[in-house]
Amino acid sequence: MYTIGKLSKICDLPVKTLRYYDDIGLLKPSYVDAETNYRYYDYDKIEAIKIILLLKSLHMPLADIKQMMECADSIQWNSIIEQKLSELEKQKEQITKEIEDMKQLKVKMEVGIPIIQGPIFSECYFENREDTLVYTLRKKIQVKFIDKLVQNLFNRVYAFNLEVNGKLMAIFHERYLMENKADVELLVPVKESNNIDGCKILVNGKYACITVKGSYTDLAMGYEILKKWIVENDLTQNGNMMEIYERGLVPINLDLRDLRPNLISNPSDFLTKICVPVI
User: Fold this and answer.
1) pTM over 0.90
2) 61 & 157 share domain
3) CA–CA separation, 264 vs 242, rounded Å?
4) Residues in the chain with pLDDT < 50?
5) Taking Cα atoms as reference points, which of 118, 147, 150 lies closest to residue 215?
6) d(CA 27, CA 56)
């Protein structure tokens, strides 16, 4: 038999590793001296260590190796190996995808393409809008609290028993950048006014429009593009610019009694129309 030190040298394995394998039950000594507690190993343990090292080189966890070493059933060995092969194939697919993504990132950087996809702007276009009955709520607020103003608007719509008939809209009459505030008017189309104060008609007419796919923070660029297009086409702005929230934080299926922002939406998928009456 070999002492633990001799076995360590033969197998080129640290003594502390052999002791750890003993502690976890992976490789028990052939004999332990009751008086000295010295560990002794016979020749068969060298073969066992070779198997352990082979399986470790295949990145197999020690728990799985222990399970295999304890089982002489070839069917169970095959089952464990098949499972490991399946895991490695998945890792291979993931690594292959990561390599391809990295190559594409490298190409983008070399040709100067932005790494992060920015907003997508439609071509500017005209839209003829009909008279639209809306219920409105206007207030000077900090922009970060606009969601509370939206909630307040829909609470009133529900309280007044109004039926929503279109997408939420907003007009920013004034922006106070130093205070991070804005004079905001929210508008929502309704079917009937029920003679309620706060309802008004958005007049019909010709509107210049642009559609922005992206976060609300990207809308400022859309405003600038639309303003430039109006000037280039010798048009005159004939009213306030207005945002129409086609897809975003306001749920498509409105529950006015329990309106909650659609927080699972990806901001890069938001769709907002900016439009302004022109002559």
Assistant:
1) no
2) no
3) 25
4) none
5) 118
6) 14
